[in-house]
Amino acid sequence: MMKKGLTISMIFNANSANYSEGFGNISTLKKLHRGDGNTYTYISRQAIRYSLTETLGWQDTPVSVEKTVAQFSPDATIDQYPEIDFFGYMKTKAKEGADTRSAVCRLSHAIALEPYKSDLDFLTNMGLSKRVGGGQMIAQSEIHESLYAYTLTLDLDLVGIDGDITIDNIEKARRVKTLLNGIKLLHRDIKGRRENLSPLFIIGGVYDMKSPHFEGRLKVKNGKLETAMITQVLALDEVIAENTEIGYIGGVFNNDSDIEALTPIGIGAFFKALDQKVDDFYETN
Questions:
Q1: Interhelix angle for 45-56 vs 169-184, to 10°?
Q2: Who contacts 28 (Cβ-Cβ below 8 Å, separation ≥6)?
Q3: Which DSSP string corresponds to 55-114?
Q4: Which of 35, 51, 242, 282 has its CA 20 to 30 A from that of 16?
């Protein structure tokens, strides 16, 4: 089978979608600092994976406990459970060592494209507290609504293969397209809210090179998507330009005309085009 990699980088909008440990009565967002002096919130790749498998109903892989460590059951196999087919596993048995499978689907953190400005939400629990004659029970949560960018990469030639197990190509294609549909309709439940993580802008395709070509290349400044950087990536190699699709929802950014110059298609059309590329790959291998 030919070595092929699928990679997509995308932008979505979300509000306060991943909290850290916190302290006292303050819930803190996951954050990182950049050389520009600003602080940016992020949604960890683990959180995105959790929301993706939850969206797809893939959290049924059996789990066992080995010496107080929760792990996937040694009896779980990739032909039965897509979760461990795509995201890998480590299974350990006493005196037998570890059996591992590397992830064939890799996610990056979703990093905010707009800086965090230390906004706080002031909360009380008066609704319930008053029922029992209590006080206000004050709490605070950091809040940040921003555009976020992240990348998914997938080794198409490694899907459905694990030791003696090989899934047929029809099922491989179905699984990959199911995964992509989950990305298209992705959401995240957090603190009583359901955040829509569906892409507003997406770029990528299927390539001979298994490189995340557009990772870290999606930038927004003053509400404008920096299309010059995207154009430069497309110009790196004609193979990149020939195999890249761009999907886009208008009215999100302040420079629609610049984005239209990249000849984008709709988000739905983008995923249909990617589905066809997946079918073409598995039908010819």
A1: 110
A2: 19, 20, 21, 22, 142
A3: HHT-TTS-EEEETTEEEE-TT--TTT-HHHHHH-EEEEETTTEEEEE--SEEE--EEESS
A4: 35
What is the Cα–Cα distance from 81 to 57, expressed in whole angstroms? 11
Instruction: List phi, psi (to 5°) of 50.
Output: -60, -50
What's the pTM? 0.93
pLDDT at 214: 98
Between CA 134 and CA 20 the distance in angstroms is: 28
Q: What is the reported pLDDT for 15?
A: 97
Taking only the tens place, the pLDDT of each residue in 173-217 is: 999 999 999 999 999 999 999 999 999 999 999 999 999 999 999
> Does the structure show a pLDDT above 80 at 111?
yes
Query: Residue ranges of the domains in the chain?
Result: 5-283
